[in-house]
Design goal:
Strand content: 5-15%
CATH architecture: 3-Layer(aba) Sandwich
CATH superfamily: 5'-nuclease
Number of helices: 7
Distance between the termini: 14 Å
Number of strands: 5
Helix content: 40-55%
CATH class: Alpha Beta
Order of helices and strands: EHHEHHEHEHEH
Strand order of the largest sheet: 3-2-1-4-5
Shape: globular
CATH topology: Rossmann fold
Length: 135
């Protein structure tokens, strides 16, 4: 049985920008060895962030669309998880929600607001480097 992983937006964005980065390698590892999880809220956030003007010099629109299609196609979709209020930044609660209701084993994030909660309800919250170190 493979691991179930939630990947934070910041990690996906790093992967889209630099495949060979530590976050990029963590995403690639998850895509090969685990089941990635998305909710409507986490999916919407990723789409909005990747389409921001500040990324336009680095990612052509067709690259963004291709990457989003890959993320969507490889993920299990968790429908409308119940609300959780636990993170000091409430905008990050959506990642906890999909992790808890999707029975995730881990969240991979570079966000300190989430990392400080490790573990959360038995779910590991790991940096991309920590995730890469796991066997």
């Amino acid at each position: 049985m493979s691991l179930r992983i939630v990947i934070d937006t910041n990690v996906y964005v790093s992967r889209a920008l630099r495949v060979a980065s530590v976050p990029g390698m963590a995403v690639d590892k998850a895509w090969v060895e685990a089941e990635t999880l998305l909710s409507t809220a986490t999916w919407t956030k990723l789409q909005i962030v990747l389409k921001r003007a500040k990324f336009a010099p680095y990612l052509r629109p067709e690259e963004v669309e291709s990457f989003l299609a890959q993320v969507w196609g490889l993920a299990e979709h968790i429908p409308d998880p119940a609300r959780i209020r636990a993170c000091r930044d409430p905008r990050d609660d959506k990642f906890l929600e999909v992790a808890v209701h999707g029975r995730a084993d881990a969240i991979v994030t570079g966000d300190q607001d989430l990392l400080t909660l490790n573990p959360f309800r038995g779910i590991a919250i790991l940096s991309p480097a920590e995730y890469l170190e796991q066997q």
